[in-house]
Amino acid sequence: MTSLIESVRNATGDTLFDYAVSPLVKILVLLFLMLLPLIAYLTLAERRILGFMQARLGPNRVGPWGLLQPIADVAKLLVKADSIPLRAVKWAFVLAPCLVVGPAIIIFSVIPLGPPASETGGLSWFITDINTGLLFVVATATIGVYGLIIGGWSSNNKFSLMGGLRSAAQMISYEVPQGLALVGPVLLAGTLSMVGIVEAQKSDGWWYVFPQIIGFFLYMVAGIAETNRNPFDLPEAESELVAGFHTEYSGMRFALFFLGEYANMIVISAVATTLFLGGWLRPFPSVEALAFLDVVPGVIWFTLKVFVFLFVYIWFRGTFPRYRFDQLMDLGWKWMIPVALGNLALTALVKLLV
Amino acid sequence: MTQPLGLPYDDHDGLFAESEEMELNFGPQHPATHGVLRLKLKVNGERIVDSYPIIGYLHRGTEKLFELHPFFQNVPHTDRMDYVAAATNNQAYVGAVEKLVGLVVPPRARYIRMMLAELQRISSHLLWLATHAIDIGAMTPFFYTFREREILLDLFEEYCGARLTLNCMRPGGLPHDLPVGWTERCAKLMADLPGKLDEYEELLTNNRIWKKRTVGIGVLPPEIAIDYGVTGPMLRGSGVRWDLRKALPYDGYDEVEFEVPTGQNGDTYDRYVVRMIEMRQSVRIVNQCLEKLPDGPIMAKRPRVLKAAKDAEIYHGIEGPKGEIGFYIVGDGTPNPYRCHVRPPSFINLQSLPELCKGALIADLVALIGTTDIVLGEVDR
User: Fold this and answer.
1) pLDDT, tens digit (0-9, with 9 covering 90-100), for A241-256
2) Residue A137: what are its φ and ψ, rounded to 5°?
3) ipTM surpassing 0.90, yes or no?
4) Dihedral (C-alpha) A49, A50, A53, A54: value to the nearest 10 degrees?
5) B203 and chain A in contact, CB less than 8 A
6) pTM, whole model, 2 decimals?
7) Chain B window 127-156: which residues touch A at a Cβ cutoff of 8 Å?
């Protein structure tokens, strides 16, 4: 593997390799070998896990244990009629799903799946490491809400419009506590770079979930609200708004919204893993007695932690009823933002004194 | 913002820009209307200003059909009104016919009827809980309740061959005696059921979100409930202790012990609690019936063709799972009823819906449709 990388590097020259070949290959690998299959199988995993929680089987007919189900689903969605309502605003209607999926996938460019090149000796386990990484994540994630609003508005359907408005209000209110919760680890690490934050957790010797336990929970709750998942799935609330903002969508356009939702779940889990659970680090990175755990590659640790979050997402869906719109706002503005501010002040104070 | 009269707005005066009221068509093909209920809503944002239920999408002319068939052949029509509680419909109809033509039902038949009716009550309440919970967003109770409902339906199937449209009673008694082993299987289910009910309650009763979504939502004061003629768990949720099984005992309800639960606040949560307790009380009744089940015939001595006297009329109402289900039958000396009018609990309880959802949010509306527990087959007939 290393020799292959070296020979390609020699053939293309350092500059071309670092700025074009290696990112391109990584993007392709990340997108087609990791992200899209993960999303596809996440849908299957969700249905199977929910099935077991709900005393039923879940999809198990297509292939062994239903393993071919996602492929069948995608094939079905691809060949389905793709209808656009007669009086919809066509360009916006077409644009909306892309606005949901695009940003969710772009965020992965700064998420470190494993250690940098200095540790692996070959390629780094991330596409790029920019010094404003976290800011980039937050900024890009915000674009996603436009997709929901535009999709809801352009469908020319009252239920869609309500779904779009709900998602706008919800995502704006929950971005504030989410952002505030993210500042905690940044204060502790002293950097905005995603790789830097993980490495700071290594040098500090603990995952930031321990000093930032409040921030962690705030981030998780806000993250679930951001991704519009149960118990905060108001924008699509099936029993209230039929299907919310994507009522009028069908075929592959609907699939894109679906893809966006699951990609966002993975993003939130990946960011939480990076900031609070030490990214690619093994548990208790400072305890020497556990050094044997380093045999497991960083990317496996990272994936395992992400899976834990994803399982929690699914678990929530099987457990909770849905919040009401105004109660959600209450929770966001009256509880989470004050608590997040308090947590931030406390963290800053401790950082200043210690 | 124009503030609609008498609505529980807490503040916000002048905080919002002028907003317009919008008309929203809710149903008849909407996932939360439990059938083909259509609601014309006037909404201000998400707040419901006014609502107007439109019914009739499932009208099948059942009452007219009653006039075309002899008393015996009308029993299957009753199945198809409240199709999730066919046994109690049967019970109300055959009760009315028996009173009309003067038949005395043997004790064994009365006890089996009571058992079937209580099993039906449990199964109807389980279906209500499933849909109510899934409307509010809790997905899992749906599958749990259906698991138990399946066993209940198996019991019905074993008894009369059908799972929903039971056709399990006849004027004067019952079509069949209990199959071999039925009582044991029923007793086993009754032994299991309280534990299963605990399981559902664990998911919901003390769940903070569930409470937030139901406590204080859709308060129905007792006077208004009585004014609208609301019956059943909806009335008892408002704190009125009125249960026809106690007030005007029919079949053998005066021979068994049970309690009638009531709520205090008349909100959605109270109605939920009342129905949950009712299921436990039904288990109690079935257990007593199994214990006391007398031997003997299951059909009264009766003529082959039932004829009501000319101008004989009768009203007989019983406590169905959703409220008072009653039949008003007029005879004209022929084997067919001259006129048969149904008092359907769903239809009358539905009238209170606009009252309940004034000033509520759209999210509450689905909880309120759930809590009225309507079956459109019965509303429209």
Assistant:
1) 777 777 788 888 888 8
2) -60, -50
3) no
4) -140
5) yes
6) 0.84
7) 133-140, 142-144, 147
